[in-house]
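Example record used in the benchmark description.
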Amino acid sequence: MMKFVLCFFIAFTPLKIFPQKLPELKPRLVVVLMVDELNSDQLFTWQKKFEKGGITRMINQGTFIPHLSVNSISSYYGNSVASFYSGATPAIHGVISDKWMDRFNQKTVHAVYGEQNNDSIPKASCNQMLASTISDELKRLYPNYSKIRGIGMSSDILNWAMGHGNEGYYCIDIKKGEIRNSNNLETPFWVREFNLKKFADVYKLREWGPINNINDYYESKFHRATLPDKFLYRFIADADYERLIFSPFGNVMIRDFAASMIINEGLGKDDYPDLLTISFSLKPGVDVNCKPMDAEVEDMIVRLDHEITGLIRLIEETVGLENSLIILSGAHNPGVYPDEYKAIGAPSGVFSGKKALSLLNLYFMAQYGQGKWVYSYNDGAFYINAKLVEEKGLSMKEMRNKSAEFLLQMSGVGRTHTFDQLISEKKIMADEVIHQSFHAKRSGDVIIELEPGWVEELCNGEFRARPSLSRDLPIIFFGGQIPAKTIKQSYRVIDVAPTISTILNMSYPNGNIGTPIKEIFEK
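Model output (structure tokens):
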């Protein structure tokens, strides 16, 4: 059993006192269950449908924090995952979105794959992240001994969980239905054996229907008019495995592979802590705009709870819960869709960044002549063509101010911020989410925030919420000496990394500004 001893130390920047009770026996295995599109409403509403040994056990026997706030205005969920593992905000770790414009060479940089080069196959890496992670600190402290592993569906989650280095992570190939290493590293024998079982082909022959009586689902009770006439999906005719992977069957494959990894690679079997991230999803591939409380999502989380029950049982039998730390959290909160607010008479709407970009360019062409005055728009950020502005003898500051004023007139835009404002105000307003999201070398010339209740429409027709207000995730710490309690107070996603670091008795990541969650160390 672990015992925690209180000690204090002073962090260099900013100057704070962090209370820590360091365990004498640190966990040998840390497992992070990162569930895309998980929110607290789902846990509270559907907990009665969960098994006793899965999520319910974690809530009842672990520390449950329903409100973990995200320190970013970005809709890119990899952004919050990067903060989760580094304890740093985007202003520090640099992962401001899924892509951004390099101000110096005016090239688009992808967060996971870097600068795009048509002559080579994109290779995932954590190189765009400017701060270390708990994974990096484990590798630094116990080189060649601590194993860092990841398995799931999303490179935008696993890339930041794995940290810097070239181990790669495992994901399901949507074309072949096989588990592959993201960086095409040599495949271990046990992975080849797993793929030979052709699980994806077996599941493709099955149908996905409700696991419980459809009339007992949340959507049936409160949104019966929107419920599909027949909740039944077939995958046999699909050309690839994408819809299958983003269904309950995909989560089953991930769970089975994770279990095989724990056994075959001996995770948690020595005195050096290992870190395993398992990325699950509640986003049904049958509809990109499934709402968080839709029947398909409810069905997925009830089925996922069964898989989590099995994982906990396996870890308990092979490693021991007293030697393990299991964390369940959301990777992205999709927010509430506009039609739900519309139904209750609350303000809402859909914003199109593509249309806003076109209108802004037309506005400048009417004033200054033909040209691509605004290079691009992505995730709330507009990038102005600095070269063209210089050629025309204009002021970038004036162009930014005019852009901000013009965009503020558009429906759904609540606030606008210019590069110049954020640079000058950064030290004064450093606690505001917009400043925590701003990186001088990567962020746009003008950044917008949407009004509460508004979402953005992406090019593929998907809706994404991107407000800086009221966006949080649930998190549960379970295992070892973690106390059984529910914490009503809100914590920040950047507080997770220093909490894990404290439990593992190791240094914080080098960009950390978070604070350990003190209630976890109090009995």
